[in-house]
Amino acid sequence: MKKATTLIITLILCVQSVFAQKVQGTVFDQDSKAPLWGASVTVKGSQKGNVTDAKGHFNLTVSSQAVLVVRFVGYDPLEITADKASQIALKKSNFLQDEVVVRATRADENSAMAYSNVSASELGKSNLGQDMPQLLNFTPSVVTTSDAGASVGYTGIRIRGSDATRVNVTVNGIPINDSESQGTFWVNMPDFASSVNSVQIQRGVGTSTNGAGAFGGSVNMQTNTFEPKAYGEVNASGGSFGTLKTTLKAGSGLLGGKFTIDGRLSRIVSDGFIDRSSSNLLSAYFSAGYFGAKSFIRLNYFTGKEKTYQSWYGTPESRINGSVSEMQAYIDRNYLTAAEADNLVNSGRTYNYYTYDNQTDNYAQDHYQLITNHRLSEVWNIDLNGHYTYGRGYYEEFKPDAAMLNYGVTSIVAADVIRRKWLDNDFYGSTFALHYTGSQKFKFTFGGAWNRYVGRHFGVLVDPLPGVEWYRSRSQKTDINLYAKTNVVLSDHWNAYLDLQYRTMGYRMKGTADKFLALDADNTYDFFNPKFGLTHQISEQAKVYASVSAGSKEPSRQDFVDNPLTAPRPECVQDYELGYQRSGAKYGFQLNGYFMDYQDQLVLTGAVNAVGEAIRTNAASSYRLGVEAVLNYQLSKRLFWNGNLTLSQNRIRNFQEKMTDYDTYDQVVINHGNTDIAYSPSVIAGNTLTYSVGAFETSLLSKYVGKQYLDNTSDEARSIKAYATQDIRLKYTMKKGPAFTLLLNNVLNELYSSNGYTYSYRYGGATTTENFYYPQAGFNFLLGASIRF
């Protein structure tokens, strides 16, 4: 950690001496000569850039022959060399373009918040079949994991230590998080990265958006952008663990000066690193767009179908350590059968508890989006969008020698059971955003959404009594949010950002869950989430910003299922951000500090409900305190370095562990004082070092994740060891031909686990702790080829 910090400080000092030309310019409307506030001015082929102020002014320090790319919504983009950029006139486009669909929910240079933008070209460099979380792995404060160990199938992402249920995900501003669990299941959207034009990751509460509350961050994706010319594209890749990916893409280009059609078909298969963790993933994307002078309409349809062998159980710690005596102790105290014991002892790090042939998860999801934007006048325009998602599927399980009374069957005492747990759901609604851009002193957006979810949960036996249904429930959730955002110019050097959101939702569920748990909940929540930020432009190269934001979120479905008698309280957070940014001809640097103060955060304490299921309870007070450093630096004409480092402290104040004593069946309360929040490493670092010459590019990609605790006790015996991985990416692009990519993952063969869980209990006067881990693959590779025509 000390070496990484020293390196960052050294580079910051070095870049101060970089000499380059100061470029000052103004961007304005070609016809009216009015300045354009919020136009982006970036250096072609780099991440360096700026945004024009209320007078259309921008400042950059670049070489005189650097090529600048200037963009503004509703105008044709322009490329110009820096020595000719003092006065830049943009021409209004003959039609609106796709960028309008995400501006309402994205942060910009004056939002006073921490965020990262990832382009389609950056995603494409590593898009050889791995899920979206893995493609975002090297962005700041991000930790990713994979159940199958090879980043295909069930994968997850944490931002600032917050799990998927606390990370808001949208596609074109439309919510993707499951309404009940509040998580995002990327396995239902295989190869979606191939249809994404850009991603913005906001860290912390972020700007007001649609859908689930963002407690750790948000992932805002925009799908394919306008393609003026017809094209076709074929991508194929394969590698370790039988992984194969095939993608076909095509587009019509502009038809009749107004219409476009784009499509994609994808298939990904993989055996997985873990035993029997195979995936068979199919997906498609179709989009038809109309581009008029004052209106933009796009109809999107994307679908995913997955069949994934379950690898959810994890691997016992004794199997990870390879200790035969510890494995035997685990076998004895958990009463494993001879077959189960043999599987454990002889499997190695690839152990999978499940051995039934069809222990699979099967799910399909269809998304329909109607995206529109209408220019009402020169200063007013509105987004009006509609969406519908239909999801259905089940996971199948084998339960040996099960008590049939648990399934409502009295004619059979016990039998080997094959069962399916089903989910069938509909999600539909509308989003809107009204924009005002007619003043040189302020911009204004008023937006919101109405969304409704209807979910049907039920269980059906496959064997021994096919068709017997033993539980069924119905859920309905209505989510309404309204927000108003404004950016105000206070002076030549000061900007203020104000964002006010009101969110209300009603959540009803009735019926029964597994083990005949009765469900009867009807709850309504109302949240007010204000956000305020200030940005001060210190000089043409540097600025500081500060913001304070409030976030709130309701409990998940499982919280109600696990707590049928006492509903948990909603969670709240106040997020304080303070940042500094500086840029030069060859570098960009950001230092961001944050303090996230939580009230009633829902955490696992070790408590169980009446049927022995672990439950989350509200922790009165907890916080995350950290600093994020990001540095992009051009070391030479061909060598580029992008690095990030997060140092944090993540604590629960006065944590109380609850442990079941099976001698007395009482809950033992253990006071731990202030403890670390589970799955929240104090150090996260990412590094990409790229060398480029002609058609060849090679990158070293490094990731370091510090120690993570499996629960909130700060017990060293319940933790995931720190790990560091090194990947190498090689890419060769022929001038008029295919491009080839080789990914060498974990080249140093680090044996590590990225996730896990734990539980403890007392029996016979002694405390037993069971730790489970999700081992990740050692050295592996993927080789891909693509051609566009």
Question: Would you write up a description of this structure?
Answer:
With 789 residues, this protein is mainly beta. Among the domains are: 1-92, Carboxypeptidase-like, regulatory domain (Immunoglobulin-like), CATH 2.60.40.1120; 318-351, no CATH class. It is built from 7 helices and 42 strands. GO terms for molecular function: siderophore uptake transmembrane transporter activity. It is a multi-pass membrane protein. Its main location: membrane.
Alpha-beta content class: mainly beta
Question: Total number of helical segments?
Answer: 7
For the largest beta-sheet, the strand count, sense and barrel status come to: 22 strands, antiparallel, barrel
Assign a percent range to the helix content: under 10%
- Overall strand count: 42
CATH class of the domain at 1-92: Mainly Beta
Distance between the termini: 47 Å
* Overall average residue pLDDT: 91
Q: Architecture of the domain at 1-92, CATH level 2?
A: Sandwich
According to CATH, the homologous superfamily of the domain at 1-92 is: Carboxypeptidase-like, regulatory domain
Protein name: TonB-dependent receptor
Domain TonB-dependent receptor-like beta-barrel: 334-747
Signal peptide: 1-20
Pfam families: CarbopepD_reg_2, Plug, TonB_dep_Rec_b-barrel
Keywords for this structure?
Immunoglobulin-like; 22-stranded antiparallel barrel; mainly beta; disordered N terminus; single chain; 42 strands; 789 residues; 5-stranded mixed beta sheet
Please summarize what this structure is.
Residues 1-20 form the signal peptide. Belongs to the TonB-dependent receptor family. This protein is mainly β and 789 residues long.
